[in-house]
Amino acid sequence: MELKDKLLASFMAFESSVDIDSNVHDLRVEAIKKFEDDGFPTKKLEAWKYTSLYSVLKHDYSVFPKGEPRLEYADIKQYFIHDIDSYKIVFVDGKYSSYLSQTTHDGIDVCLMSAALNKPKYRMVIDKYFNKAARNEGLSALNTAFSQEGAYIHIPKNKVVEKPIQILHFATGTETGLMLQPRNLIIVDENSHLEIIERHQSLTDNPVLTNCVTEIFTNKRAIIDYYKVQNDKQTASLIDNTYINQKQESVASVHTFSFGGKLTRNNLNFYQNGQRINSNLKGVTIIGEKQHVDHNTLVHHIEPNCESHQDYKSIIGDSAIGVFNGKIVVEKEAQKTNAFQANNNLLVSDKATMNTKPQLEIFADDVKCSHGCTIGQLDESAMFYLQSRGIPKKEARALLMYAFSNDILSSVKIPEVKQRITKLIAQKLNVNLGFDL
Fold it and tell me: 39: which residues sit within 8 A by CB, 6+ positions away?
């Protein structure tokens, strides 16, 4: 049975296991019908022109994992950023692990999506925000149909959350193949500030496919810093759909660090619904072997006097494939928009491939917008200079590649995250850089 047919057949069983009187029941039914019509995306779609899911979808995935796997903290400690005090929301094979988590309702809600969907006290918030930013199409619709578990975070107005929140998803390998569909809803109310670190990690060599949807709402003058650490095993694939709805004078920043996994597709969508909004999208990708990473971004400027800044850098080796498909849309009413987009890439192998397509759609006439891309190799004169100063060739290459990505790291606001990413870059470059930042 093909995966699409298996999912359609599984939906009835899923619906019978959850409350059909839930306020999202109708949304689930509508979404599964949409997925039945759309199916999985193919390369015939312009947005998926350079990314095929064929090799990912051929596995026999378990949709509902069996058993109650239990992990010890010592087994997964390395995947936490454990040198900072933080809230933690941990899922193991799609199920919440209270043993490994630290949630709170003390002035803020850092808890579970399942609780928010099923408890009456959250109904007004769910009615107002759930599935209001996500697109009802393809993989996002599939996630909506099976939405049950994930992170629910609601920060009331005038709150600065003192500790970052870590959201971690682990796959244990209990199943021969596993498909996970976490759903996150994050609401940051007026004048509040929040930092989030997210990671998906497979602990097995069995195939794992994660189809994740995250909806983020930043209300008036709210600030959110979101860090995605993607360094999974070569048997794990991730499709990450993130939708950010911004209100007046809010600031939303997303850093995506893609180092591991078989196939990674990041769909990152910003919608600016207000004036004096700032949106920041930054990413570092370092891949090799036969890895495939695709960044698909959208910033939709709807009202005037707003800014956006996109800066993505990739280092691609072996037979790996990178994709950047970034779009900026400026509506007619969005005068005085200042939008920047850049995608710079290093190919360090003759077999490496990079497909890049920065796009601007501008319907306003009083704007400052720029976009561009570069694809090249390491500067031989710089290599010669470093080697002439006694630096071995391997370390010289690593230093140049690190310097290439360093300006992305300079905007990371959590020092412990910056140190972890620096170490991951050193591991990917197979060299000891000899310093931490």
Answer: 4, 138
